[in-house]
Amino acid sequence: MSSRPSGFESSGYWYEADDSRLGSVDVLNLLRRYRAADQEMRRRTRDSMGMGETDLLALRYVLRAEREGEMLTPGMLAKLLDISTASTTVLIDRLERSGHLVRRPHPSDRRSLVVSSTTDSDAEVRATLGRMHQAMIGVADGLDQRDLGVVARFLAGMIEAMELVEPHHGAEDAPIGDIPDVSITEPRGATAADEDAARHRDGAGGDATSTEA
User: Fold this and answer.
1) What's the burial of 197, exposed, middle or buried (CB within 10 Å: 0-12/13-18/19+)?
2) Alpha carbon separation from 148 to 42, 44, 92 (Å, rounded)
3) Beta strands 113-117; 101-105: pairing state
4) CA geometry: angle at 78 spanning 159 and 81, to 5°?
5) Which terminus of the chain has fewer CB atoms gathered within 10 Å of its CB, N or C?
6) How far apart are CA 32 and CA 27, in angstroms?
7) Measured between alpha carbons, how far is 125 from 119 in angstroms, rounded to an integer?
8) pLDDT tens for residues 41-70?
9) pTM exceeding 0.85
10) 140 pLDDT exceeds 90?
11) Separation CA 42–CA 27 (nearest Å)
């Protein structure tokens, strides 16, 4: 008789579920469900704030820099987003029109500008994500030091495992079995971002994650 807890499924991974691996299968599937929940949260946040993923990511970078006492120039933001300077200009223009970002003179370089958040954008992000962040902190606070150490080692190991994946080409590198979904939701390459910027150039809406952050 299987000892698998109800509600756990083993589909989506390339190894067979058996009594000796039930625990690892369950944990990996929970991790997959967490990724799916994170992607859905990002979608709801974009819908709530009326912006695409690249826009939301840019706003997050600006808010993080401000919390850390740093300044972001348009060029620095372009590098973080991995998009062209032209696309970054269009993006900042769009977020200025929506009231989320402003350009300010650089305090020590007259030739440069600084991208800053508005009071309203900071309050909007806090109102949209604050409850979720508090709930997540509550879950982590509920663990003792030993459990926190176990979780930290597990997540660090998962990060290292994901970084082992390298692109392969050719028939000899055909995938074996069912490979788990490793969708990436962070910034896309310059070409995709440029297309997103073009769609938004006239202030039109859109979702930068249409092919998450």
Assistant:
1) buried
2) 26, 29, 39
3) antiparallel
4) 30
5) N
6) 9
7) 10
8) 878 877 777 788 888 889 989 999 998 999
9) no
10) yes
11) 23
